[in-house]
Predict the structure.
Amino acid sequence: MNYEILSVQIEDADQILAIYAKSVETQTASWEYCAPTIEEMRHRISEISKSYPYLVAKSGDIILGYAYASLFRGREGWRFVCENSVYIAPEYQGLGIAKALMMQLIEKCTKQGLRNMMAIIGDSNNIASIKLHESLGFNYVATLKNIGEKFEKTLDCVILQRCLA
Ligand SMILES: CC(C)(COP(=O)(O)OP(=O)(O)OC[C@H]1O[C@@H](n2cnc3c(N)ncnc32)[C@H](O)[C@@H]1OP(=O)(O)O)[C@@H](O)C(=O)NCCC(=O)NCCS
């Protein structure tokens, strides 16, 4: 599949929202219950991309998926740590796109001087996400047991860490 990995543009917000909304409504990857509005999604993209890399995989005008880094914790001592998010449209999963996006994200975050990237995986049953991160050199840190709630189920959270230095 031919695609390019590009920095996000604000015009990408509609397609990013479509991918994210489908996941919010049907999966436990995000513990948000309702998809944000388009205005809120534009705001999130513009705020995050001021400080961190935000990448899209694009084939022609179609966004296949996206990945970005964001603030992990706000206090000064955490400033070299980021968290990552990655979503691929269901019809383009299993093609190596998340891995390609994440490799560029890791490279850009490293160049920017960030020292650690955290994957906070919102459900211990999200094998695809756990395998993706392990294949990128993330190490298992911990499982927070019975810590979240979505679709009337109690969920575990898996934490992985990748050193960027
Ligand atoms: C998790 C997700 C981003 C993976 O995207 P993808 O483009 O299908 O993943 P890739 O094709 O790049 O696969 C990368 C690696 O993960 C592994 N992997 C991906 N999906 C897998 C699955 N369902 N089961 C087992 N391994 C899987 C691949 O085998 C590959 O490993 P390799 O490099 O050793 O061959 C995608 O399933 C998704 O968007 N899920 C919904 C949102 C989500 O859960 N995001 C993560 C939030 S923490």
